[in-house]
Design a protein that fits this description.
The chain is an alpha/beta fold. It has a domain of 207 residues: NAD(P)-binding Rossmann-like Domain (Rossmann fold, 3-Layer(aba) Sandwich), CATH 3.40.50.720. It contains 13 helices and 13 strands. The strands form four sheets. It has a seven-stranded parallel beta sheet, with helices on both faces. A two-stranded parallel sheet has the order 7-10. The protein has a two-stranded parallel sheet with strand order 8-13. The longest helix has 20 residues. It is globular, with a radius of gyration of 19 Å. It starts with a strand and ends in a 7-residue tail after the last helix. The relative contact order is 0.13. The structure holds nicotinamide-adenine-dinucleotide and 2'deoxy-thymidine-5'-diphospho-alpha-D-glucose (DAU).
Length: 342
């Protein structure tokens, strides 16, 4: 692995991955291929460009555009595709699923086909614990479990996973898949719950907790996820899928308590609001398979939440312009008429 083609590399996890890989592997170079949707931002890569400019190239493009993808693969002679590009926010997928199906399903197919035509390039698909659907009892999702997605976002991601697996089985394309938990950390667009709540709390705005707030999530630090993806790229078995998470879960309310305590803000900011439609109650994955490759998480949930809060406190330059733009319309649409409960 010398020349990586990282789609969605200007988004949250993608930019952290690019930063990590260029630091960790001095021999590797990266082409970021990104459409720059509302979630993709060049600011996310500013420091990486300054430190590693000669090993980082940027191409603005859509993964659904086969000619553009094939042209970029040819131009840069890459050997590995890592596909982060996706529409990623569940609430937006409920408002309008169209772009999710385009990018997360069709776009994945375009990349797989381009990898095949370019001579069976190594292909890694970034997926999510949401494809397993919500998990009952104390079960932890295994990679071999059937997929049971329940939101348009999760269903689109599951479509991408099935297509990636089909390219391995049918054409022998060297594919791996990893499924991450709820990532938090630097550069996450403030529509996602942790950055949304931190930035609301800093402005003394209410924190809209969906329903009773007792849904369970595995809040994983993005750096642990990035290291896990690198481990799968280096040592994962072709054709296999790997869960990457802490293997533990906590309730949203527990997450909010830590967040407010770190900020020194009162519990009275918590406001229970009408639940998300089809809201998955619990995600939790078994991560033995990736741990058997020598990976382990370094952040607890609490450490990951506190570190994330501190990043947002220290980096207003990054999120204040976002919150004053398109975000305001989105916020009004999603939360403006939402019923307060309890
Ligand atoms: P993000 O929304 O922050 O970034 C997505 C990036 O993809 C953006 O840079 C955007 O411009 C780009 N993009 C979107 N559509 C594109 C298209 N058609 N062509 C090219 N680029 C396009 O997302 P994220 O949170 O960084 O998630 C990255 C990947 O990780 C996604 O595949 C997501 O499903 C997966 N994932 C996310 C989480 C999480 O908690 N955020 C957890 C597990 C897996
Ligand atoms: O689990 C991995 C997934 O995590 C990724 O695949 C997705 O791309 C990513 O968006 C994330 O999905 P979630 O729906 O779990 O994340 P979100 O931050 O939107 O919500 C986390 C939890 O917080 C969830 O139970 C819903 C709740 N929530 C969310 C928002 C935005 C609230 O209670 N209030 C809110 O305003």
């Amino acid at each position: 692995m010398q020349k990586l083609f990282v789609t969605g590399g200007a988004g949250f996890i993608g930019c952290n991955f690019v930063r990590y890989m260029l630091e960790r592997h001095p021999e590797c170079s990266v082409v970021v291929y990104d459409k720059l949707t509302y979630a993709g931002r060049m600011e996310n890569l500013l420091d990486v460009q300054a430190r590693h400019g000669s090993r980082l190239h940027f191409v603005r493009g859509d993964i659904c555009d086969a000619a553009a993808v094939e042209g970029a693969l040819r131009e840069y002679g890459v050997d590995t595709i890592v596909n982060f590009a996706a529409e990623t926010h569940v609430d937006r997928s409920i408002l309008n699923p169209d772009a999710f199906i385009q990018t997360d399903v069709y776009g994945t197919y375009v990349l797989l086909e381009a990898a095949r035509k370019a001579g069976n390039l190594r292909y890694h698909q970034i997926s999510t614990d949401e494809v397993y659907g919500h998990i009952h009892g104390d079960h932890r999702s295994m990679e071999s479990d059937n997929l049971a997605p329940r939101s348009p976002y999760a269903a689109s991601k599951a479509g991408g996973d099935h297509m990636a697996a089909a390219y391995w089985i049918t054409y022998g394309l060297p594919v791996t898949i990893s499924r991450g938990a709820n990532n938090i950390g630097p550069f996450q667009y403030p529509e996602k719950v942790v950055p949304l709540f931190v930035t609301n709390a800093l402005a003394d705005l209410a924190l809209p907790v969906y329903g009773d707030g007792r849904q369970m999530r595995d809040y994983q630090h993005v750096l642990d996820h990035c290291v896990g993806i690198d481990v799968v790229l280096q040592r994962g078995e072709i054709g296999q899928t790997y869960n990457i998470g802490t293997g533990r879960e906590m309730t949203n309310l527990e997450m909010v308590e830590i967040l407010l305590e770190e900020l020194g803000k009162p519990r009275s900011l918590i406001q229970h609001v009408e639940d998300r439609q089809g809201h998955d109650r619990r995600y939790c994955m078994n991560v033995d398979k990736v741990m058997a490759l020598g990976w382990e998480p370094s952040y607890t949930h609490e450490a990951a939440i506190r570190a994330t809060v501190r990043w947002y406190v220290d980096n207003r330059w990054w999120w204040e312009p976002i919150r004053s733009g398109e975000f305001q319309d989105y916020y009004q649409r999603l939360y403006g008429q939402r019923k307060v409960i309890g």
